[in-house]
Amino acid sequence: MKISAVVLSFNSRRHIEKCVRSLAQAFAALGGENELWVVENGSSDGSVQILQALEREFPSLLKVTYNERNLGTTVSRNQALRRATGEYVLVMDSDAWVEAPTLAALIRTLEADPRCGIAVPRLEYPDGRFQLSTDTFPTLVRKLHRLVGLRNLEASAKPPTEPRTVDYAISALWLFRRSLLDAVGLLDEKIFYSPEDVDFCLRVWKAGYTVVYDPRVKAVHDAQELSRGAKLNGFATRHAKGLAYLFWKHGYFLSLARLYRRIGRQSKGS
């Protein structure tokens, strides 16, 4: 077994060291010749210096690509995905951290069902609050509801207790077989920042695989929420453009009924 972790860093000084160390500890506990690819996206907050020090500390594990500017989530992740050689690929945000038992459980989920394309755990905020990290495919109405009311959605949500399939999971932590990329392809580089995770999961379903959420195991995600809320900024604007492209690409907008029929999915959470 070999895991290739892919992590992005953009002004992640608060989190990147904890993220890298959590993976180093998890990989040491799991054993095997695992690898950690970090793509540094032109940070200006000291993240570069932290990563350089970590490279010296973990020379056989950590491999960093330093970009001069922020290339977005898709181009950057694809840089590392092309180099990943592991049997399994772990896509993770720099503001997340995970322990070995969670990774082992997700691997078992993948091994138990060849139709499982992506396995994901329950995500929590650092204070233990439930994080709404999976959802139905977005429609315009659902996306607006999530954008302005995510806190209320999370507060009112009843977290599931048993594994189930989901439409999509945010890319804060995915685990999949390296071979999935042969069937689905890399991330769509026409999307700069979000909803590349929705697009990829949709393509996983179209290729005949599923996305499985296992709430019995967890990871922590201290979400930076770059595009959350009603305030306009560069990330929010690019997110809106990406969403419009997603609707155009997959041929839906207000209803999921036809989309579900095309991908052979009966209903959410089935």
Description:
The chain has 270 residues and is α/β, with parallel strands linked by helices. It has one domain (3-134, 160-223): Spore Coat Polysaccharide Biosynthesis Protein SpsA, Chain A (Alpha-Beta Complex), CATH 3.90.550. It is built from nine helices and eleven strands. The chain has helices spanning 16-30, 47-57, 72-81, 100-112, 140-156, 180-184, 196-206, 234-250, 257-263, and strands at residues 3-9, 35-41, 62-67, 88-92, 96-97, 116-124, 134-135, 164-165, 168-169, 173-177, 210-221. The strands form two sheets. Strands 1, 2, 3, 4, 5, 6, 8, 10 and 11 form a nine-stranded mixed β-sheet that branches. The protein has a two-stranded antiparallel sheet with strand order 7-9. The model is unreliable at 227-232 (pLDDT under 50).
Could you write a compact summary of the structure shown?
With 270 residues, the protein is an alpha/beta fold.
> What structural class should be given to the helix and strand makeup?
alpha/beta
- Strand portion: 15-25%
Say which CATH homologous superfamily is assigned.
Spore Coat Polysaccharide Biosynthesis Protein SpsA, Chain A
Could you name the ranges where pLDDT drops below 50 across 5 or more consecutive residues?
227-232
Ends distance: 30 Å
Largest beta-sheet characterization: 9 strands, mixed
CATH architecture: Alpha-Beta Complex
Number of DSSP E strands:
11
* Mean of residue pLDDT values: 91
Looking at CATH, which topology would you report?
Spore Coat Polysaccharide Biosynthesis Protein SpsA, Chain A
Shape descriptor reads: globular
CATH class: Alpha Beta
Rg of Cα set: 18 Å
Q: What is the count of structural domains?
A: 1
Provide the succession of SSEs: EHEHEHEEHEEHEEEHHEHH
Continuous helix count:
9
Percent range for helical residues? 25-40%
Domain Glycosyltransferase 2-like: 4-184
GO molecular function, one term: transferase activity
Keywords: Transferase
InterPro entries: Glyco_trans_2-like, Nucleotide-diphossugar_trans
